[in-house]
Design goal:
elongated, about 300 residues, four-stranded antiparallel sheet, alpha/beta, six-stranded mixed sheet
């Protein structure tokens, strides 16, 4: 449904994308995960036809996003990170204006509006001014705008931005409903690990390059076992000692050591007994997507 082939782009001298390739299957929730500046927003802009890539090509539903941009726009719905609603208009008026942009009018437009506001549980707020809505309700209206013309693909840029945990859960329940019940293909950008966990597949990006790709569970399984985190007054020395004694390769993240190991509980006991005065604190957890990112890049997602 979505395909990127050797995408590259520069903003002046700064590299934004280099050799990015991926495919998104129909009916899939596909996430672009990475820190700010990683390349997510550039891919989003290219796929939404807001800009042409510096090199390579991308297509949506078999349509080239540059040469067939108008056709692509008819197939996609776009939810931007920044709000695009007119606060001085009602929910219904915002949706009616959006429908006109897609050439919809009259009875068909009214039916489309009624359908999307019911699906998003905002029918009772149709005559309310947007400025009176909560952040979560405004996000629903943004999504309703994107769905009015019944797109095959929904592109979402940081969809949970500004939402509280409850609104975030509601948003994701609806996103999954779009995929499961209506077959909509969804691509989203995010730097929120909880959000990334709910995607079918992920593309991890850093400094414009792909560092990993796959289902969240598969990516974490590559680490396996546990991640043990040590804090020490002399992290460099402790790293050398742990490496010499146990054959591990700690990653030093700003003075905090992270060790990937199969049996974390036993390792902690043995390490504390071996170097009791050097370890100030220790923690253990199952691998996370951030651990995957750290392993591949040496930095955290921020």
């Amino acid at each position: 449904m979505i395909q990127a082939e050797d995408l590259s782009h520069h903003y002046g001298e700064r590299l934004a994308l280099e050799g990015v390739n991926f495919r998104v299957s129909p009916g899939e929730i596909f996430g672009l995960l990475g820190p700010n500046g990683g390349g997510k927003s550039t891919i989003f802009r290219i796929l939404s036809t807001m800009m042409a890539p510096g090199g390579g090509r991308a297509s949506v539903a078999g349509l080239d996003v540059v040469r067939q941009a108008a056709e692509v726009r008819r197939r996609i719905g776009v939810v931007f990170q920044s709000q695009s609603l007119d606060k001085s208009l009602t929910v219904f008026e915002n949706l009616r204006s959006q429908g006109h942009l897609h050439g919809l009018s009259g009875k068909l437009l009214r039916e489309r509006i009624e359908k999307v506001i019911r699906r998003l549980n905002i029918a009772d707020r149709a005559q309310d001014l947007v400025q009176t809505l909560s952040g979560g309700l405004k996000r629903r209206v943004e999504i309703a705008k994107a769905l009015l013309h019944q797109p095959e693909v929904l592109l979402m840029d940081e969809p949970s931005t500004g939402l509280d945990p409850g609104a975030r859960r509601e948003l994701w329940n609806f996103v999954q409903e779009l995929r499961d019940q209506h077959g909509v293909t969804i691509l989203l950008t995010t730097h929120i690990l909880e959000e990334a966990e709910r995607c079918d597949r992920l593309l991890l990006l850093h400094q414009g390059r792909i560092v990993a790709e796959g289902a969240p569970a598969d990516l974490k399984a590559k680490i396996g076992g546990h991640v043990v985190v040590f804090e020490s007054g002399d992290a460099a020395r402790l790293s050398q000692d742990l490496s010499a004694r146990f054959g591990v390769k700690p990653a030093n993240m700003n003075g905090v050591l992270r060790v990937e190991i199969g049996n974390g509980h036993r390792f902690i006991t043995e390490a504390v007994e071996a170097f009791p005065g050097a370890i100030e604190s220790v923690a253990l957890h199952k691998p996370t997507l951030e651990d995957v990112f750290v392993r591949e890049t040496g930095v955290k997602i921020e």
